């Protein structure tokens, strides 16, 4: 026992828990429970507080706030940070991933049109369901 020496880990980072506040659209108490359950399973999360009236979710724990946001966005698509400056960082990163506005065609970024399907694409059974014969006059 006398040969062993205890060395303090001064090189290691001291990680403190942080609060992550997000604005999450919550339509019902079921949405609230779904978000709370999803966040409680993340590693390093100590508590999750959901305020249905303010549409606010507060997470406290040792975590990366961008990972927390991506986890919430898997359940609620339009979730964002409560502070505006955090949202601008994310928007700039998303714009960097997209192609520049001058390159490519405009139709690539447009949603697909709802043009009618070709008549030959339907099978005989599908046509039969659409146009059923009725002999009653």
Please provide a written account of the structure.
The protein has helices spanning 29-40, 65-73, 84-97, 106-109, 124-130, and strands spanning 18-23, 45-51, 56-61, 80-81. It is of the alpha+beta class. It has a domain at 28-80: Alpha-Beta Plaits (2-Layer Sandwich). The protein has a 4-stranded antiparallel beta sheet. Residues 17-84 form the HMA domain. This is HEAVY METAL ASSOCIATED PROTEIN 37. Residues 99-116 have a biased composition (Low complexity).
Average of per-residue pLDDT values: 74
Radius of gyration: 26 Å
Return residue spans where pLDDT drops below 50 for at least 5 consecutive residues. 102-115
- The helix/strand class is alpha+beta
What string, H for helix and E for strand, traces the elements in order?
EHEEHEHHH
- Label the CATH architecture of the domain at 28-80: 2-Layer Sandwich
Q: What amount of the residues lies in strands? A: 15-25%
**Count of helix runs:** 5
Tally of strands:
4
- Largest sheet properties: 4 strands, antiparallel
Read across the widest sheet, the strand sequence of neighbours is 2-3-1-4
Gross morphology is: elongated
Multimeric state: single chain
- Helicity, in percent? 25-40%
CATH topology of the domain at 28-80: Alpha-Beta Plaits
| CATH uppermost class of the domain at 28-80 | Alpha Beta
Distance between the termini: 103 Å
Region (Disordered): 92-120
Protein name: HEAVY METAL ASSOCIATED PROTEIN 37
InterPro entries: HMA_dom, HMA_dom_sf
GO molecular function: metal ion binding
């Amino acid at each position: 026992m006398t040969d062993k020496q205890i060395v303090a880990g001064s090189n290691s980072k001291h990680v403190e828990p942080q609060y992550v506040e997000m604005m999450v659209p919550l339509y019902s108490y079921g949405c609230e429970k779904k978000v709370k359950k999803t966040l409680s399973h993340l590693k390093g999360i100590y508590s999750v507080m959901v305020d249905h009236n303010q549409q606010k979710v507060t997470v406290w724990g040792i975590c990366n706030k961008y990972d927390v946001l991506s986890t919430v966005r898997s359940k609620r698509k339009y979730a964002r940070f409560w502070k505006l400056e955090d949202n601008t960082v994310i928007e700039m990163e998303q714009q960097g991933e997209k192609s520049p506005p001058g390159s490519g065609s405009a139709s690539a970024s447009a949603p697909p049109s709802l043009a009618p399907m070709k008549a030959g694409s339907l099978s005989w059974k599908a046509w039969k369901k659409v146009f059923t014969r009725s002999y009653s006059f």
